[in-house]
Design goal:
The complex is a heterodimer of chains A (about 300) and B (about 160). Chain A is an alpha+beta fold. In chain A, helix 5 packs antiparallel against helix 8 and helix 11 runs antiparallel to helix 12. In chain A, the strands form 4 sheets. Chain A has a 5-stranded antiparallel beta sheet. A 4-stranded antiparallel beta sheet of chain A has the order 11-12-13-14, sandwiched between helices. Helix content of chain A is about 35%, strand content about 20%. The termini of chain A are far apart. Chain B has 2 domains: about 70 residues, Ubiquitin-like (UB roll) (Roll); about 70 residues, Orthogonal Bundle (DNA polymerase, domain 1), CATH 1.10.150. Chain B is about 35% helix and about 15% strand. Chain B contains 5 helices and 5 strands, in the order ββαβββαααα. The longest helix of chain B has 19 residues. The chains are: A alpha+beta (about 300), B alpha+beta (about 160). The interface between A and B is large, with 41 and 36 residues.
Chain lengths: ~300, ~160
């Protein structure tokens, strides 16, 4: 199982990479970590004429704190770096936790954040985490740089707003509130999730100090994202609406879970039926919310 | 603009030795090691990153050599199972695999050793759960994993005993 022949170039700069993409339009692929692309090459599901290796581009690296309390994370950041970065653990712990769930150590050492987003597997952890965090995706191409909200980035099965002549350069993550949860069910550690849910819970003023599992009294603003339950990472909007302005309790978490089951449109395959995945979405939404509630109870902001 | 090419000259270090070679762009690191360098200890199973048999260390970190092109290894240091094996005899981890009967057909064993070498380099005393999670990315069709986990645990214990000396 070998890839079809291709030509290969180490991009010397971001401008060089963009010129290379434009030189053979539509038949050139960006090679970052390669942990999704190379299997597809080996199986000849994709047969590009040219691979542009961007691994040498320093412009695409680095994890930088931003003034609003968030982070700018270079697209070439490896999953193992994300999981271990003190800045990510402090400012976007949901993202660090999601990165720990990606594949196995050997995959996490190579795979990149930008690559995971550009590939947009509907069962992948990092796209779901970034959608829950309301991240912004920075892209550059022959028409210059632009920014796309995560909500507008994922367009369908393995489909994104990224143009074939463009490169994903970085992610901007806003300051993450203290209330977050991340849960998934997979057959084995490292497998793609059968289903998973990422939750980010903000509590508005006024606020009391509750004890778990009550998360916080005050107006809730919740972003809930399911993965493995649709053709893309999916906002569970019915569940979000149900919680908006409500109080997070065991009862409201369970109601939101039931709503989440109706929000998703899971696939049936050899790993699990659509009904089973819908059940998982229900249970995992409730669990993710209770995790978020417990964290809010520890640290209400 | 950099000119794309279907053949490239690469310079890298393999098991501590400098190597310079012309490779086809689509040559995987696994095939480069096996076919071009004759290092057949790295086994090729699924060729799409699932089975873990081809795991090697790149700059000390585990990687699937079927998911890397040799052309990407310019300037890097690759360590294979041959590089983890002493000139005479076996490494303590390999010896532990032998003593615990942690292999049957042996196809997965190089990948298991490389993968758990990284674990032992990162953690002084990994839990049984951590060992099981680490090798969940390496498929073994024979053993049921029990003796592999036991071998790694024994290597950890032997190292701790050695350190207490």
């Amino acid at each position: 199982m070998k890839p079809a022949p291709f030509r290969y170039a180490h991009a010397a700069s971001l401008a060089d990479a963009i010129a290379l993409l434009a030189a053979v339009p539509g038949e050139t692929k960006v090679l970052a970590g390669g942990q999704s692309l190379v299997p597809m090459l080996n199986m000849r599901l994709v047969r590009p004429a040219v691979l542009v290796d961007v691994n040498g581009l320093r412009e695409l690296t680095g994890i930088t704190p931003t003034t609003d309390g968030g982070l700018r994370i270079g697209a070439l950041t490896r999953h193992s770096e994300l999981a271990a970065s003190p800045a990510v653990i402090e400012r976007a712990p949901l993202l660090a936790e999601a990165a720990r769930h990606v594949g196995h150590a050997a995959i996490r050492n190579q795979g990149t954040l930008g690559g995971s987003l550009a590939h947009a597997d509907p069962a992948a952890e990092l796209p779901a985490a970034l959608l829950a965090l309301d991240a912004r995706v920075q892209i550059t191409g022959p028409r210059g740089p632009r920014e796309v909200a995560a909500d507008a980035f994922f367009r369908g099965l393995l489909a994104t707003a990224l143009g074939p002549d463009e490169i994903l350069t970085a992610i901007e993550v806003p300051a993450q509130p203290a209330g977050w949860g991340f849960v998934e069910i997979a057959r084995r550690p490292g497998d793609f999730a059968l289903a998973g849910v990422a939750a980010v819970v903000r509590v508005g003023y006024p606020l009391t100090l509750p004890s778990p599992p009550r998360g916080g009294e005050g107006e809730l603003r919740v972003r809930l994202v399911g993965f493995g339950v649709g053709d893309r990472p999916l906002r569970l909007t019915g569940a979000e609406r149900l919680l908006a302005g409500a109080t997070l309790t065991a009862a409201t978490a369970a109601q939101a879970g039931a709503a989440a089951g109706a929000d998703c449109d899971p696939p049936s395959d050899v790993h699990g039926s659509a009904d089973y995945r819908r059940h998982l979405a229900t249970v995992l939404t409730e669990r993710a919310l209770l995790q978020a509630g417990a964290r809010l109870a520890e640290r209400p902001r | 603009m950099t000119a794309p090419s279907d053949r490239l000259t690469i310079r890298l270090t393999v098991n501590g030795r400098p190597v310079e070679q012309v490779v086809e762009a689509r040559r995987s690191l696994a095939d480069f090691l096996r076919e071009d360098l004759g290092l057949t200890g790295t086994h090729v199973g699924c060729e799409h990153g699932v089975c873990g048999a081809c795991t090697v260390l790149v700059d000390g970190r585990s990687a699937r050599s079927c998911l890397l092109f040799a052309a990407q290894l310019e300037g890097r240091a690759v360590t294979t199972i041959e590089g983890l094996t002493p000139a005479e005899g076996l490494s303590p981890l390999q010896e532990s695999f032998r003593v615990c009967h942690a292999m049957q057909c042996g196809f997965c064993t190089p990948g298991m050793i490389v993968t758990t070498t990284e674990l032992l380099a990162q953690e002084a005393a990994p839990s049984t759960e951590a060992i099981r999670e680490t090798i969940s990315g390496n498929l073994c069709m024979c053993t049921g994993y029990v003796n592999i986990v036991r071998a790694v645990e024994q290597a950890v214990a032997a190292r701790a005993a050695g350190a207490r000396g």
